[in-house]
Amino acid sequence: MVFLFSGSRDSTNPLHFKTLRWLEFFLLFTAIPLLYFFGIISIPAIPSLLIFFAFCTILLWKDSSFNLNDLFVWRDSLHNVRKILLRYLVISILTTAGVFLFLPEQFLSLPLNQPQFGACCFCYIQSCLHFRKK
After folding, report:
1. Pick from 70, 58, 64: nearest CA to 8
2. 41, 32 Cβ separation under 8 angstroms
3. Rounded-to-10 torsion of CA 7, 12, 18, 21
4. Pick from 35, 36, 33, 2: nearest CA to 16
5. Residues 6+ apart with CB under 8 A from 82
């Protein structure tokens, strides 16, 4: 969205560019979710997100200063993926331990009350493990 307001990525006025970044942040993560929450925006969220995605993709495609190959570069990213998965594992273990200690009546209530959800998760995990072995 900043590119739409400023005309290019390399703005001549850094303060103006920074203000537009904060405006973009506020709109995307505060104003629009609040408009949906209070029912001011009545269109469905997923189609509007897809339209917004298409709009941003077109803006990036037409921007000559943006290198589209940067989106799909995988070299040196395995290290980053490992860091992300390690953080996810630590947070998952801490969350599980917290629920077990502080809300023992809720621990494993989702798979016990909705076994179809547990089956879907199990199939997903199995497919990931099978894919990893190949």
Report:
1. 64
2. yes
3. 10
4. 2
5. none
Q: Flag whether pLDDT at 4 surpasses 90.
A: no
Structure tokens at 84: 């992300």
Q: What is the pLDDT of residues 87-97, one digit of tens each?
A: 888 998 998 89
Q: What gap in Å lies between CA 75 and CA 51, rounded to an integer?
A: 31
Report pLDDT digits (tens) over 31-74.
888 988 898 888 887 888 888 888 888 888 888 888 777 776 66
SS (H, E, C) the chain: CHHHHHCCCCCCCHHHHHHHHHHHHHHHHHHHHHHHHCCCCCCCHHHHHHHHHHHHHHHHHHCCCCCHHHHHCCCCCHHHHHHHHHHHHHHHHHHHHHHHHHCCCCCCHHHHHCHHHHHHHHHHHHHHHHHHHC
Number of residues written out for the chain? 134
Which amino acid does the sequence have at 83?
K
